Amino acid sequence: MALSAALALSAAACGGDDEGSGGDDGVVIGFMGDLTGENSGIVIPPKQGAQMAIDEYNATNPKTKITLKTYDSQGRGEQAVPLAKSAITKDKIVGLIGPAFSGESQQVAPVLEEGKIPSISPSATNTALGKNGWKYWHRIVGNDEIQGGGVGEFITRALKAKKVFVIHDNSEYGKPLGEKVEATAKTGGATTQVDAINPEGSDFAATVNKVKSFAPDAIFYGGYYAEGGKLLKQLREGGVKARFLSGDGSLDKGLAAGAGVENAKDSVIACPCLIDPQGTASPASKKFSEAYKAKFNADTAIYSAEGYDAATAFIEAIKAGNTTPEDINSFLSKVDVAGVSKQVKFLPTGEPAAADVYVYKVEGETLPLIGKASEATV
Amino acid sequence: MFGNFIDQFWPSTIDGLSLGAIYALVALGYTMVYGVLRLINFAHSEIFMIGTFAALATLNAIGLSAPVGGLALIGLVLMLAVVAGLVSGASAVALEFVAYRPLRRRGASRLAALISAIGASLFLQQLFARVLIPWWFDLPKEKGALPIPKHFTETVDLLSIGDFIIRNDKLFVILGAIVMMIALDQFVNRTQLGRGIRATAQDPETAVLMGVNIDRVVSATFMIGGVMAGVAAALYLMRFGETNYFVGFLLGIKAFTAAVLGGIGNLRGALVGGLTLGLIEMYGSVIFGSAWQDVVAFSVLVLVLMFRPTGILGESLQQARA
Lengths: 378, 322
What we know:
The complex is a heterodimer of chains A (378) and B (322). Chain A is an alpha/beta fold.
């Protein structure tokens, strides 16, 4: 118990926000994810997005105020489960934003299911999560299958690639994503070849040789940016000039840092998330980005809009007078409001009704949005 | 499957040799320490890691404005190798002083030293991950690529006959490893200190009676292993242009495998084992897919050890001749 409180405190301190103790007339919503660990870079933005939505709501002086309480799971299921239990029994949360990652979601969701606590993850994209028949679980981001389909279609439609080489890191995330891209590209009329790398290794020469001998028009990598950058660097040094694409695991400036800016130039990264400081996609995201920048002195980053939208769904429920977890959950099944990243609306499975895939282009160390994968051209 | 193998035979061979050369240099550290102390120095992979950071610091200090090739690259790599070699060598000696010597003095069992080695390995990794890297690069502790100078190696194809293309950086790695290997072989076999090392490997008690200063020999052994790892680190940085605190982990396991494959305790075995392992990995991944690279490599290790339990060359340091 002391541990969770301390972690929540330190996380709050680093976000620089003030959290009240939740008065008698207020409710507590949790946020769970890796807030201080290795991958906190992709969890702090949605936490800040959620914080912003709740602060905005509280500023309107509503009847029921909301307190956001953070739970630092470090992205680990074994830490997330006890945290979730104490969140339910001790802190009496009425809803949980998170857990941020798919692995911990898989372990935490049954606990929430048993405690009848609704959850909305801003960032867990594993496809299988939506197939468990959970009644209290939701997510506000498109799953990996949707992402893979979107990229595969983009490769054959917008890039007109005839030969596609898919590389993945054999992980639970990278492998199905890569395979879905391959299958979609094949359906789109491309010939494909697949190879897997060992993400722990540093020499990808065998893969580079295979790519060279296949001479593809486009290369898709399913995996995370750290290895993606190394792989891309070695591909370019080996003389491979084909366009490089990857998924949300590589949507980070670390890709260009690892590969070298020249090597990463013009690579296309897909994500079911919307990061749009320029407001290319909608005026709403421009407005959101400006407010976010003013509040946190940082540009919107990965999943910050989704964190905001997840909080919005809970806020709508509470606005409508629902203050028990059970009522909130039944409200979530019919919520239908405009969010920043998409229309906030859930299918009966807990998946988001609207699930667009967006594509981003690597320019220097920035990743400007090109548009929806189904419409964009490069 | 085998069509690919024929297509990609030459590129795989070159890549396998250049990867294997780095394995071989790191394997030397394992093999020498094992030969002398019968200890597997698990912290050796971190000595390699320290070398890559020493080379990186040198590179940052020089601050290249354009990639270098040809003779300038040779000069640069030589310089990096000297710095990384010295730093790694000194670290290895310091490691021995802190982690092994006190145990050896008190006559602790070899298992105690083994645990100490694992502890030292974890300590060094975390020291870099949590303290030195964030301080040095002003980064949060994240997994990912560290900023490496943009301009470093200009890769040039030196020779290209059809598929048979030799790129300058890959050739440097192979040649570098072979030169270091010959130098070490001569050192161990021709110098007085080398004789001391062989004597200690053969029979420590008799060596002491014959006037060999065993502490000096052990320090020298760690020093040499460290220098070799430092040179490997410089070559690694040139070849892959990246490093991080966990860079030594998998490479260390592979190098240790190479040492066992060639015959642990045997200097030439380290070279043979390293190059063999590099080639097996590349050929294996062409034939079965890159995901099988490690499976193939370790399967071959098992097979070799079944039929030749002492490794390919099978001799130990004590019996190494001329």
